[in-house]
Here is the input.
Amino acid sequence: MKSNFLFLVGLAGALGLSWAGIVLGSNAQLGGLAPYYDENDQASYPGWMAGQAARGQLVYRDLGCAACHTQQVRRPDFGSDQARGWGDRQSVARDYIYQPAPQLGSLRVGPDLGFLADHKPLAPDADDILHLLYKGAPGMPSYKFLFEKREIGAGAQPSAVALNLVGRDRPAPGWEVVPTTRAVALAAYLTNLKASYTFPEAVPVPPEKKEGEATPAPKPAAPAAPPAAMAAPVAKGAVPAVPASPLPSPTPQPMITPTPKATQ
Amino acid sequence: MSPKSEYTPVDAASSNPLLFLLFSGLAWLVAAGILAVVAALQAHSPDFLSGCRFVTYGRMVPMAETAFVYGWLANAGLGLALWVLGRLAGEPLRAQNWALYGAGFWNLGVTGAIIGTACGDRTGFELLALPSYVQLLLFASYGAIAVCGLLAWSGRLRDLAFASHWYAAAGLFLFPWLLSIAHVMLFAAPVRGVEQAVVASWYAQAAWSLWLAPLFLALAYYVVPKLTGKVLPSYEFAALGFWTLLFIGGFTGGRHLLGGPVPAWISSMATVCSALVLFHLFIVILNLRGVLGAPGIAAKFIGFGLLAYVLSGLTDALTSFYGIALRTQFTYFEAAQKALALYGAATMVLSGGIYFALPRITGKAWFSGALVRAHLGASVLGVLVVLASLVLASVTQSRELLDPKVPFEDIVAHARGPLAGVVLGEVILLLGNVLFAANAGLTAARILNLSAPAAFSPPAALETPAS
Here is the structure.
């Protein structure tokens, strides 16, 4: 290496190649990803995040919730995500197109929150989330600074949004605990996290059927996947039963949430 | 080359920016250690300091990481890279004030990033916990530091004949472009949806493969032949190893996205490229293997660091495979890999570099050999305790995460024991680093004291024996 010029060209090439390959390459593939329009529903998915939910995502990022929680449900044969009831389908890139700051996360100290509002058997509502944030849980700190403990003025009515705390956390008589706007935004965001629609690319290609087999049973040659993980989508009927056309037809898609709730 | 003949007055003439960079780095090392202890305590007992909004666990982790990477590794790495470039130029560094003021503003920027993260501007990107408003300051101040390196590089007397030259130049020149790309694509005009995760994973990997690793490899390639007193074996392959890292390394970041909501080719490409980078590791160890038996304290640090570097590359390659990632993804094993790379490899090599360079820059022998050996012991023990604890935690965690019947309360409870080990390891590392910084400070203070032991008489006095 005797030439300055060639060396610098090499350095620039080294940086530019991986940038072009990974960043520009994936941007070319995903940059134009559009919402999916369903003709039956006369609606496109995913919907825009409501303003409060979008603000809540910034609170989520700022507090660092992603240090312990992921937001990506993986395929049934890759981990126990769906068997744990974290969602009936895997997350796909289209789920995130309207999110201002997607938080995929890299460590699971707590459960995945990608489709929190669809969790089985019981999805938490906003009140559950506020209580959890106030009180904490085993392995999760409390976020009391997201709440205001204040005195109910003489003759005033207690706030309608005050937490209904019991036991040790119950404030003294004449006092109440109300969530700040940040806490409300965070709860709005978390209750908004749902798999609104089963996109064609989110349906795994069904395993090849052997002759004579009636139903697509999980292949025995997948010892890594827990059996329950494979069973879940089959039981729900989310996997198209006809493997003749590998591309799912765009018309009838199984909805996970009923339509009136999605269009409210 | 005998140790005596490589004493050069060039070092003393360049000492201002070099000492400023090295001592800023040491101060950040201690600060990052304190933050890391707090973060480890919070991981073990989530309610520790949970009432304080500025130091939630989710903020503590990136704060500790920023102090460590942009405070300690960047300052020490840049200081030592400038030292290597100046030595290879054969004359005192030019434009020293650019490096000095640049380093001052750089540290201001890192401080701003940590305060910003604490006050609500967490970015949410790994290895990039820099709020957008400090990025321009960091870009400009890095550029000022690099001016000094650029002049030393372009004013050199010889051809680009040394591997240390290539690595130092790469480490010094590529980072500003990395940062500017990340700034545009993630902050100024953010890309949409999961593309942000792709850009962030590319940046994090490139910051390691194209910036931090070249900085400490430049030092290793420069110091190891001086420690062994021999020409590097199989040196003709060094260029291949260099270009392999630079061209392939940036493609390996996608392994963290395996199974995620991104195109599958990103992680497949990362698997292939992680395996190709093994070729680079092979050449590094082929060239530098002499350090493993070399005498002196610097050789012990650098030898440990290079072994950790190879091990870190091997585990990166292995965990990029589907069957293994199934068990390691989203567990503490990834934290262990990060500690192995950032602490086991980068920090150990740079510490060894400081043990070698500081006496030559100041012209004074190390203040206390006992403190040096205590630091070596604490570093090795601390790294091993942290790694062992995290791996132990990840084994149970991985098995229980895969079993959908185990509730999260149990997984958390079972991880508590090993996580206490992480706290212990971080405390040991912090103690060792306090000794390191104190010893370096007392050594530099000898410049002021004319009666202190003079330079290199005999030369061996500068080298602290390892036992």
Remarks:
- Residues 3-463 of chain B form a domain with the Cytochrome C Oxidase; Chain A fold (CATH 1.20.210.10).
- Residues 11 and 360 of chain B are 7 Å apart (CA to CA).
- Chain B has one domain: 3-463.
